[in-house]
Amino acid sequence: MNSRVNPRNRAVKVAIVGGGFGGLCMAIKLREAGIEDFVVLEKAGELGGTWRENTYPGCACDVQSHLYSYSFEGNPDWSARYSGWREIQDYILATAGKHGIHEHTRFHAEVTGAHYDEARARWTLDLTDGDQVECQHWVLASGPLHVPQIPNFPGLERFQGKVFHSSQWDHDYDLTGKKVVSVGTGASAIQYVPQIAPRVERLTVVQRTPGWIIPRDERRYSALSKTLFRRFPALRKLHRARLYWSNESRVLPIFHPRLATLLEKGVKQFIRLQVKDKDTARRLTPSYTLGCKRIMISNRYYPTFNRDNVELVTEGVKEVREHSIVFSDGSEREMDCLVLGTGFVVDPRIYMQGFPIVGRGGRTLQEDWKDASEAYLGITVAGYPNLFQMVGPNTGLGHNSIVFMIECQARYIVDAIEKADAKGVDALDVKRSEMDAFNEKLQKDVAGTVWQQGGCSSWYQQADGKNVAIWPYSTWRYWLKTRQVDESKYHWEKVARPVT
Ligand code: N01
Predict the structure, then answer these.
(1) Is residue 356 within 8 Å of 364, Cβ to Cβ?
(2) How large is the greatest C-alpha to C-alpha distance in the chain, in angstroms?
(3) From the Swiss-Prot or TrEMBL record, what is one GO molecular function term (predicted)?
(4) Test site for ligand 1: of 64, 67, 145, 287, most ligand atoms within 8 A of the Cβ
(5) Nearest-10 crossing angle of helices 85-98, 21-32
(6) For the chain (length 500 residues), average pLDDT per consecutive 10?
(7) Residue 148 C-alpha to ligand 1 middle, in angstroms?
(8) Is the CB of 343 under 6 A from ligand 1?
(9) 183 Cβ inside 6 Å of ligand 1
């Protein structure tokens, strides 16, 4: 497919902010709907989002590849059940190439603010280079996990060695023979820790809260499987459906914390079998209910602690010195390199501080989200007409593929734009009463889940404990709700003044 749109156009029908899995899906669905007048604004020099940025050793997706890919763009050639970042990034770029999305993309275009002109029903997006893009609709697809969270350890600025965050891995720095301290034991850290352990002189893993880690079914696909998947797409689709439903069944313990407690027994046994030292195994065993934080998968993480050059520290960090790190019990370790597997700033009220979104009546999204970020179906916010979000409030997932949610959102957004066009209106704005009712019910339902009752704190929750990150139901329920836009939930508006 070729497009004749110039990505440097200053006025478009639709602007998409971010060229990761979400933005790319949106762009493809717009083209499929015959909407060519759009631009993807990408801050970097290439598409890919998460999979362009995260390249740490062992970086892979912990959702099966046949599921963590677009339903409309099956790939019979996935090498393994769980693919590494490079293979996923190659898939994204190949898909973008096939659908002509590079031609629609303006690279090195970072958006720093947006404001709505009510009289003309048009948004203006500000770019870092001072340029502006005007659009009727825009889609915020920048993703919730991209601003590294850097801990403020006392003395960190004095450290003379190397420091980097997992999402900004410095591949030019050779870890061989170095004394490395790694902080954090989330999904990123459990992937790179086993990879770097054999190379370094000593690895100190600093754990604040242990995670529940279940075995990973690491099969590679044989040449025969790939051939069958290519020849008989129905087989690949069946495989995808099986993976979907096996992941979807993980939603059960979320609503039934007692069921989660039963499953914990098996995982505790898994830890005891994998870790030789009893004290280390005990310290690696979580005390909160399984599922309260994201369930992780690995066969390699626990055995890493059987190595002589790896130790687990469960004390807090007291301070960092020029060449060492000191823990709360006063013990000190020499350190050449500090790796921060400390996750991301997930609260949009914090990471979007420098990105004012000014809607109707001069109100900002930041003001409206003062207490919590809220949207209708995670997509539209009352007072911000024609602004759509992907993986917005309460649409993250802890148990299944986010690509499923992204496809639901892209379909819904296209439907909204098409309905507005068919009605001959300029804008649609979700009714505040509908948005409030939706969120009230959602928060009531979240109260019974393992996230609120499991005895942990996680990035799923704000500091006050409110869960604004995760979709608390089955994903097919989201599919049903987003299948098409319910017109009664929106104000449909025609502006009085002609658009110039
Ligand atoms: O980050 P995290 P991540 N002192 O927030 C600890 C996705 N992902 O980058 O648990 C000491 O999970 C913190 O401790 P605690 C996935 O959605 C997906 O690993 O807060 N420790 C925790 O252990 C995932 O959930 C894939 O007590 C500190 C860790 O740092 C999300 O990205 C792969 C600390 C942060 O864990 C984030 O994962 C990888 C401090 N001051 C990631 N501050 C897939 O395969 C933080 N910690 C799809």
Answers:
(1) yes
(2) 74
(3) monooxygenase activity
(4) 145
(5) 20
(6) 66 97 98 97 97 97 97 97 97 98 97 96 96 97 92 98 98 98 98 98 98 93 97 97 92 77 90 97 95 92 98 98 98 98 88 90 94 96 98 93 98 98 98 98 90 84 87 95 98 79
(7) 10
(8) yes
(9) yes
